[in-house]
């Protein structure tokens, strides 16, 4: 995914992960729960729910996820 983002000059993209139903419980768009391995893909100190963030994006320049 990051390679495609770099080729198309996309700096951020939604990854299909959110905690809209239950704060702090991240669910993929197919309904499966995020695993501990998935959660390690976040930037340090994230997710932090700043601004009541519910959706997750990947940031190409950090090669990590952030909640927005």
TrEMBL record:
Residues 1-58 form the C-type lectin domain. InterPro entries: C-type_lectin-like, C-type_lectin-like/link_sf, CTDL_fold. SUPFAM superfamilies: C-type lectin-like. It holds the Pfam family Lectin_C. Transmembrane segments: none annotated. This is Brevican core protein. The lineage of its organism: Eukaryota, Metazoa, Spiralia, Lophotrochozoa, Mollusca.
């Amino acid at each position: 995914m990051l390679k495609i983002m770099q080729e198309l000059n996309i700096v951020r993209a939604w990854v299909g992960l959110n905690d809209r139903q239950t704060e702090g419980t991240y669910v993929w768009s197919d309904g499966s729960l995020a695993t501990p391995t998935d959660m390690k893909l976040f930037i340090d100190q994230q997710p932090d729910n700043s601004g009541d963030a519910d959706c997750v994006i990947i940031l190409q320049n950090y090669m990590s996820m952030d909640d927005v």
